[in-house]
Amino acid sequence: MSATEIDPQKLEAVMGQAVLDMGAAISAPLFVIGDRLGLYKAMADAGPLSSTEVAERAGVAERSVREWLRNQAAAGYVNYDPGADTYELPPEQALALADEESPYYLLGAFELIASLYADEDRILDAFRSGEGMGWHEHDHRLFRGTERFFRPGYKGNLVAEWIPALDGVEEKLAEGAKVADVGCGHGASTVLMAEAFPASEFHGFDYHGASIERAREAADAAGVGGRAKFDVATAKDFPAGGYDMVAVFDCLHDMGDPVGASAHIHETLADDGTWMIVEPFAGDHPEDNFNPVGRIFYGASTMICTPASLDQEVGLALGAQAGEERLTEVIKEGGFASVRRATETPFNLILEAKP
Ligand SMILES: C[S@@+](CC[C@H](N)C(=O)[O-])C[C@H]1O[C@@H](n2cnc3c(N)ncnc32)[C@H](O)[C@@H]1O
């Protein structure tokens, strides 16, 4: 291609985008460092601080912290006052970066992303072989990062918005119902539901043994271990129980055989039971998802979800952004008579399926 065919404005746009992306990528481990060393927490509600004060509060070396603060200020996460040479974490940033109980907390995402660099060679092999890579094969930071990334969204929405959007389910849970949380991971969703509905019993299932152990610890720590039980089982072999509700949170697309899972869930539900399907928000066509959230999900789907599904029997590989139409087909193929969108958030689609 000759130089005259290059549009300088388009080239500048490519370079601008790439520079933004380089800044984000190189800052990713700095978010993890800030998280692990408690730097954001040291700054929360503290007003303007010198780099020495931030370092003292976190118990780390000032010279490294000063450089870290300047990276954070360059991105606008921290405000810098040149006159006083101080740095401040504004309250909005503190909600996202320092308060693990806030629905906006997002540092888990960076822990999850860090795990992918550790697994790069293995993921690359999966591209070559086409055989996928099991969820259980990933660096352990994926499991904890996923829990910490998803929990704030569940905490903000599950009990307040999603369950009330289902037909008659909130009333049943308040009176006393039996619930299965399939593909429960570390049990964040199970524990939140058990805390909110003390008359109901909850059973979390996941094929990944280490996640089930962690879920049991989380339930005990939250004081709901008596009503939130966890067992290793797949979505196709968890024990039947006449469940009033089965829920799957951000995992149907990770399964090799989501149609088989749908059929088994259909069998295990009570006749008037409800299946709640929480999936990443997505439009039905790839181009509907070419936006900042879709970009994140396609990244996760390429490196985590699609290989996870390919690693299992059938290997349907729905991808993290299958969209409502395709999800509805899969759910109905398993035997469900009706599927509707109960509600949505910018990150999640919440579907309700009835037998
Ligand atoms: C993205 S994580 C979501 C975990 C949890 N539901 C949450 O929202 O935090 C996907 C989970 O699905 C589980 N999983 C994948 N395939 C499964 C299968 N066939 N049966 C049961 N669990 C499965 C994985 O072990 C993993 O814990």
Q: What structural keywords apply?
A:
single chain; 355 residues; alpha/beta; Arc Repressor Mutant, subunit A; Rossmann fold; 2 domains; two-stranded antiparallel ribbon; 9 strands; 49% helix; 15% strand; binds S-adenosylmethionine
Q: What do you see in this structure?
A:
This protein has 355 residues and is an alpha/beta fold. It contains 14 helices and 9 strands. It has 2 domains: 95 residues, Winged helix-like DNA-binding domain superfamily/Winged helix DNA-binding domain (Arc Repressor Mutant, subunit A), CATH 1.10.10.10; 211 residues, Vaccinia Virus protein VP39 (Rossmann fold, 3-Layer(aba) Sandwich). The protein has a 7-stranded mixed beta sheet with strand order 5-4-3-6-7-9-8, sandwiched between helices. It has a two-stranded antiparallel sheet with strand order 1-2. It is globular, with a radius of gyration of 22 Å. The site of S-adenosylmethionine has 22 residues, from α8 and α10.
Work out the helix count. Answer: 14
- Give the termini separation: 59 Å
In CATH's first tier, which class of the largest domain applies?
Alpha Beta
Look at the helices and sheets and give the structural class: alpha/beta
Report the biggest beta sheet as strand number plus sense, adding barrel if it closes. 7 strands, mixed
Task: Using the alpha-carbon principal axes, give the shape.
Answer: globular
CATH topology heading of the largest domain: Rossmann fold
- The residue ranges in which pLDDT falls below 50 over 5 or more consecutive positions are none
- Give, in spatial order, the strands making up the sheet with the most strands: 5-4-3-6-7-9-8
Helical residue percent band? 40-55%
Which hetero ligands occur in this complex? Answer: S-adenosylmethionine
